[in-house]
Amino acid sequence: MSTALTCTVELLSIGNELLLGNTVNTNASWVAEQVTELGGEVTRITTVGDNLEEISTAIREVLRRKPALLITTGGIGPTFDDMTLRALAKALRVGLRLNESAVSMIREHYARRFQKRRVPLTKPRLKMALIPDTGTPIRNPVGTAPGVRIRSGATDIFCLPGVPKEAKAIFRQTLSKVIRAKTGGMTFAEKWFKVKGVMESSLAPAIDKVMRTWRGVYIKSHPRGIEASGRPSIELHLSISSLNTRNARKLLQNASQDLARRLTALGGRVTHLS
Amino acid sequence: MSTALTCTVELLSIGNELLLGNTVNTNASWVAEQVTELGGEVTRITTVGDNLEEISTAIREVLRRKPALLITTGGIGPTFDDMTLRALAKALRVGLRLNESAVSMIREHYARRFQKRRVPLTKPRLKMALIPDTGTPIRNPVGTAPGVRIRSGATDIFCLPGVPKEAKAIFRQTLSKVIRAKTGGMTFAEKWFKVKGVMESSLAPAIDKVMRTWRGVYIKSHPRGIEASGRPSIELHLSISSLNTRNARKLLQNASQDLARRLTALGGRVTHLS
User: Fold this and answer.
1) Which of the two residues, A112 and A34, has the higher pLDDT score?
2) Alpha-carbon distance A124 to nearest alpha carbon in chain B (angstroms)
3) Domains of chain B (ranges plus CATH)?
4) Which among A100, A135, B52, B114 has most CB atoms closer than 10 A?
């Protein structure tokens, strides 16, 4: 029998475009969804701009809360405003050093991509190999900037690129295994319902009752507006995280049936979405 | 002549669905975009779950950084896990009270929506009128839960619903005017470029030079991957916030021309996107 382990995770999204609002933070939702499916628990998401002081302050605050993992996205590329690694070194009070294996990764990347043409390792390119002293680079299977892994106290820190394709590739290749190891096999199960014809304020007591009866099942209501018929439409999300997969499925099943019964009694029309 | 005023804004997004990753935080990007267009500056976005302690801790942390505005979204509805207002009262060390004008707003909403049918003000419905002692309710033009405005030290706090349509309606009706008054007429201007055939690491020195020449213009590069032809494609975003609209436009124009010239010299093909 494996033992239940919680793996708390904080995300730190870095980039002025997120604060200007012209980019939607899909990296955070994608990573959060993966972490949840692997049995981990995202406890907070913080977004800051490309500012050395802001990033390093935010990192220090996260470390004080001692999550098992801190995953940062953005700010590890070649441009002047990519400053996540400098901010990380500052937060951890360690130096930055040109990491030889990171240099090799970058060199190999350019050699692979531009087979004939020689791409010189200019200063902006080498900047991507300047990582905190105690950190290790992680191979980026689809881009140039290597990811970085570094330990600080209770927290395992991973820095991923901001380009979604690259963040996803490094997550799938490396982080998913790290989280799986930390959660020791916790699984996450969920169900979606749609209910028409009952107001959210009328649902509240039923949801409350079901959650108190089937402990461990969490239910969230999402109002989806009023239909042309004048009837409210609400989506309900039931979920559970547990080490015992069979038990989790059973609990979720029981809670779903109980909830559907109660919603029907309130005059609602219930559809199972998944 | 009006005077330049900065209006710093922090956003606090509340909801387990954001941490589970099954909802993308489009409220944060929409609000951030509006704030930016109105000349305000979003300095940080924090996302926490539906947890009393987490929300009130996050609010206290924001207040310590003294932004001009704190805008929260989510957690003001009728269900058990809507606890933003309780957390706000806790953070500000004030009591919660059934607010009579909030009760009227809720009663009027139901009367408007269900003209014939009497909708009793049950406990979950009255919960939406339980607001911190020193707060004022804000009429919700498209939903039930009123928004809340409350002052704490240097910070004006606004609590908006999590349902995007409702958050947007209250923002447009109330917050946009508040921000416009605080920024005293600051404007934001921007331009988008696309450049093909130059790698991001080669662009870096050109971007750096243009930003140093045309002070106040901020440039961010967004790699958009490699085309079928094997040439990298990158989008560039130039922006400026200034009190002097004419000067801002002129600076942006000059910086754009300078940048386009430099990119062409590097062998790039430049397209103006806006």
Assistant:
1) A34
2) 6
3) 8-183 (3.40.980.10), 187-272 (3.30.70.1130)
4) A135
Beta-bridge partners for B149: B136, B158
pLDDT value, residue B274: 66
**pLDDT at residue A1, as a whole number:** 35
Q: Average pLDDT, stretch A131-152?
A: 94
B135-146 core/surface letters (b: 16 or more CB in 10 A; e: else) = bebbbbebbbbb
Number of inter-chain CB pairs under 8 A, A vs B: 182
Please determine, for residue B175, whether its predicted confidence score (pLDDT) is greater than 50.
Answer: yes
Q: In the predicted model, is pLDDT for residue A201 greater than 70? A: yes
pTM of the model: 0.85
Q: How far apart are CA B129 and CA B85, in angstroms?
A: 10
Q: Is B21 within 8 Å of A32 when comparing Cβ atoms? A: yes
CA dihedral sign, ordered B175, B176, B179, B184: negative
Bridge partners of B157, per DSSP, are B70, B150
- How many residues are recorded in chain B? 274
Residue at token pair 């942006």? B252
CB contact under 8 A, A221 and B79: yes
Residues B97, A104: Cα–Cα separation, whole Å: 63
Determine contact, residues A163/A228, Cβ cutoff 8 Å. Answer: no
CA distance A242 to A249: 9
Pick from A85, A58, A240: nearest CA to A148: A85
Q: What's the CA gap between B85 and A272, in Å, rounded?
A: 32
**Separation of alpha carbons A159 and A157, rounded Å:** 7
CA distance B219 to B221: 7
**Tens of pLDDT, residues A237-252:** 898 988 888 888 999 9
Which residue from A16, A25, A36 is facing B220, i.e. has the nearest CB?
A: A16
Q: How far is A116 from chain B (nearest CA, A)?
A: 13
Assess contact for B102 and B146: CB atoms under 8 A. yes
Given a cut of 60, is residue A2 above it in pLDDT? no
- Across chain B, what does the average pLDDT equal? 91
Q: Say which of B18, B163, B226 has its CB closest to residue A223.
A: B163
**Residue-wise DSSP of B247-269:** HHHHHHHHHHHHHHHHHHHTT-E
Lowest mean pLDDT segment, chosen from A84-98, B36-50, B83-97, B182-196: B182-196
Cβ within 8 Å, pair B32-A19: yes
How far apart CA B206 and CA A83 sit, in angstroms, is 18
Rounded CA separation B55/B91 (Å): 9
- What is the model's pLDDT at position B2? 40
Q: Which two tokens stand for residue B89?
A: 């009262």
**Residue B86 tokens, joined:** 């309780």
- pLDDT on residue A138: 94
Q: Which residue of B has its CA nearest to A51?
A: B43
Which region holds residue A39: left if phi is over 0, alpha if psi is between -120 and 50, else beta?
left
Nearest CA-CA partner of B35 in B64, B3, B62, B68: B68
Looking at residue B236, its amino acid is L
